[in-house]
Every structure is written in C-alpha cells, then in structure tokens.
C-alpha cells in the first residue's frame, strides 16, 4: 500500500489540476481523500438557468471515486476510468454547496467498481457509478 505521504502527494496532484482548482473542488475533510469533495455552486459551475451545471456531475463522481480508491490501491498500481454513469436527481441553486462521497463496491486485481453520490445539505442530488481499470503505476 502507499504511505500517507504518497497518498497526500497524489491527492495534491489531482486537486491542483487547473480544471479542478479553477472550479474550487476541495476535500471535505482536509488530508482525508476518503471524506469526499466539496464544491460551491458559483459563476464557474452553474448553467444559464443558475443551477449546478449537469456536466460537472460525472466529473465530481469520477474524482471522488478515484480519491476514495487511492488508499486501497497497491503502491505499484494506478486506476483509470473505463466507464462511468451519472444521474442528476435535483437542481442545486447558485450558492449551494455540494458534498460528494464514494464507496468501493469491489476492488479486484484488474478492475475497481465504485459508487458515488452528491448531496446539498441532507438532500441527495446526484448519483453515479464508475468502473476503473487497475493498471501498473
């Protein structure tokens, strides 16, 4: 398994990607990639209707699932998305804060199956599933 420092470095790399950084994606609990992500619906993340842009849902599910998987992957392995689905269940208005969580449904030698969800407060607003190929790092 990866050391906590190796995991922290990978998390920093993911969250500092320009798209993620510019959208304002952050860990829900600093230092804990399994805690999920937080995103405030602002100018850069809303659609013309003034609510969370639906195209961000698959992105948030994918990133949350990857970060959730990191501590469980062997140090010599990486994971890449091979398929994903997302369903937007309810609109999130401007100023709303979305929190995401994910779980590892199954981690095999060559594939990982994960599920994620987005909430605004106590309200479930989106769900998704991700399949990742487990590949050499």
Q: Could you list some keywords that capture this structure?
A:
alpha+beta, 137 residues, 23% helix, 3 helices, 6-stranded antiparallel sheet
- Second-tier CATH architecture: Roll
Count the E strands.
6
List low-confidence stretches: none
| Global shape | globular
Largest sheet entry = 6 strands, antiparallel
> How many helical elements?
3
CATH superfamily name?
Hotdog Thioesterase
Q: And the CATH topology?
A: Thiol Ester Dehydrase, Chain A
What portion of the residues fall into strands of 2 or more residues?
35-45%
Domain module tally:
1
Give Rg in angstroms: 15 Å
Structural class: alpha+beta
Straight-line N-to-C gap? 12 Å
> What is the CATH level 1 assignment?
Alpha Beta
Name the helix and strand elements from N-terminus to C-terminus, one letter apiece. HHEEHEEEE
Mean pLDDT: 97
Strand order of the largest sheet: 1-2-4-5-6-3
| Share of helical residues | 10-25%
Word description of this protein:
This protein has helices spanning 4-15, 18-23, 56-69; strands spanning 26-27, 37-40, 77-88, 97-107, 111-120, 123-136. A hairpin with a 2-residue loop joins strand 5 and strand 6. The protein is built from three helices and six strands; from the N terminus they run H-H-E-E-H-E-E-E-E. With 137 residues, it is an alpha+beta fold. It is 23% helix and 39% strand. It has a six-stranded antiparallel sheet with strand order 1-2-4-5-6-3. The protein is globular, with a radius of gyration of 15 Å. It has a single domain (4-136), classed as Hotdog Thioesterase (Thiol Ester Dehydrase, Chain A, Roll), CATH 3.10.129. The model has no long low-confidence stretch (mean pLDDT 97). The longest helix has 14 residues, at 56-69.
């Amino acid at each position: 398994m990866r050391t906590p420092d190796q995991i922290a470095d990978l998390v920093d790399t993911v969250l500092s990607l320009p798209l993620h950084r510019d959208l304002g994606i952050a860990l829900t609990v600093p230092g804990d990639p399994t805690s999920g992500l937080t995103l405030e619906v602002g100018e850069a993340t809303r659609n013309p209707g003034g609510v969370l842009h639906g195209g961000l849902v698959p992105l948030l599910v994918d990133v949350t699932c990857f970060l959730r998987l990191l501590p469980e992957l062997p140090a010599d392995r990486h994971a890449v998305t091979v398929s994903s689905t997302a369903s937007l269940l309810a609109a999130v208005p401007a100023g709303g804060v979305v929190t995401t969580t994910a779980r590892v449904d199954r981690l095999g030698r060559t594939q990982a199956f994960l599920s994620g969800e987005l909430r605004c407060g106590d309200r479930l607003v989106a769900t998704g599933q991700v399949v990742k190929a487990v590949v050499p790092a």
